[in-house]
Design a protein that fits this description.
Layout (H helix, E strand, L loop, with lengths): L4 H13 L8 H5 L5 E4 L12 H9 L4 E2 L2 E4 L5 E3 L22 E5 L2 E5 L7 H4 L27 H15 L4 E2 L2 E2 L2 H6 L5 H10 L9 E3 L2 H9 L6 E5 L6 H5 L6 H4 L2 H8 L4 E4 L19 H7 L3 E2 L27 H11 L3 E4 L2 H9 L2
Parallel strand pairs: 1-2, 1-13, 2-7, 3-8, 9-10, 10-11, 11-12
Antiparallel strand pairs: 3-4, 5-6
């Protein structure tokens, strides 16, 4: 099938531009199948996110790293959930014994109503079961609702090591500290607990990469001298909450300039921008001209792993959509080819199987 003329020109430009982009740094280049495939919350496109099934399926189908988002319990255990508010990702609402726990809180300046991990002990959370977060988008995943418990970070580490042995390759864990400023304000700091777990498990640089949207959280991890790479995640609007709440006017846009990238390189090894920060999408939903971010980051000595790659039409630029259904799969392979051609060092994806197939060229 001949590509759409506009899409074809973009793909050709991306491939031609690869030589002009700085080569991936040593750690990525040494990996036998770079760019790396990061299983976003496991394989969230195929299983309810942050479950043992999602992580296992992600690794079975090609993920090199698996991503657990970290939030604390009331007794300060680190568990893996996309957010500390868990009504969308667990069956908590169906547990009458926890009805009174529903409340409203202000998290990172936003009012949020629901049930929160910090109001439950680990033992209580273990009585809940995971459900699909996007049931209207991924109805196929709802068949797994109620089958998996909430995992601790330690359990994810144990699972990654077991999967590494089974598959004969090192599977890294890629924990993200979620809302670290908020949790610090209520006496449930994430960084000391995470550092202790990294030390206890003797996680090395090939087994663990720590990420956060908040620079101060990463700097606190850096001060622990754990020897693991750090990944600065970058949003598309505003600035990191830790900076905003302290009166620092630095925005994510500022952080993606050559000056901002040099500052990130002083404490981190990677940046994780939204994929549209590398190839913008216009008001019409179509692909624009690639920005200099990738080349600028490589020039600063940073590796780059954009997020989040998904297969459904609603998450793809119009160039790669197929059919008319928002939840139908589009041409995800063309999107991976575009970013691989530009020279990214990793992709963060809900569909690690598709990313791995695209990487193999098969």
């Amino acid at each position: 099938m001949t590509p759409h003329p506009r899409r074809r020109s973009i793909l050709l430009a991306a491939a031609a531009g690869t030589a002009a982009v700085s080569a991936p740094t040593t750690a990525a280049a040494e990996h036998p199948r770079a760019p790396l495939v990061v299983g976003h919350r496991g394989a969230a496109g195929w299983r309810p996110e942050h479950t043992a099934a999602a992580y296992t399926y992600g690794v079975q189908t090609g993920a090199d790293w698996i991503e657990p988002d970290l939030v604390p319990t009331r007794d300060h255990a680190l568990v893996v959930r996309h957010e500390n508010e868990i009504s969308q990702t667990t069956d908590v609402a169906s547990h009458p014994e926890f009805t009174a726990r529903r409340t409203t809180k202000t998290v990172d300046g936003r009012s949020v109503t629901g049930w929160f991990t910090e109001d439950f002990t680990l033992a209580e959370l273990k009585t809940l079961r995971a459900v699909e977060r996007l049931p209207l988008v991924r109805n196929r995943n709802t068949v797994f609702d109620g089958r998996h418990e909430v995992l601790t970070f330690q359990e994810v580490v144990d699972l990654a090591r077991r999967l590494s042995k089974e598959h004969g390759r090192t599977i890294a864990v890629f924990p993200e500290t979620k809302h670290p400023t908020y949790f610090r304000s209520i006496g449930l700091e994430l960084e000391p607990k995470l550092a202790a777990l990294i030390r206890r498990n003797r996680l090395g640089p090939r087994e663990c990469v720590v990420q956060s949207f908040e620079p101060t959280s990463l700097q606190r991890i850096a001060a622990q001298e754990l020897g693991v790479p750090l990944w600065q995640a970058l949003g598309t609007t505003g600035g990191p909450y830790d900076l905003v709440s302290s009166g620092d006017p630095t925005t994510y846009k500022d952080m993606m300039t050559p000056t901002g990238l040099a500052k990130i390189a002083a404490y981190a090894d990677w940046i994780g921008p939204d994929k549209t920060s590398i190839v913008p999408v216009g008001a019409d939903g179509g692909l624009g001209t690639p920005t200099p971010l990738l080349a600028d980051a490589h020039a600063a000595g940073l590796k780059v792993g954009p997020y989040t790659f998904r297969a459904e039409n609603q998450f793809l630029p119009t160039d790669f959509r197929r059919g008319t259904g928002a939840n139908d799969f589009g041409d995800a392979f063309a999107e991976y080819a575009l970013y691989y051609g530009l020279g990214v060092d990793a992709v963060v994806t809900d569909f690690p199987d598709l990313a791995a197939i695209a990487r193999s060229g098969s």
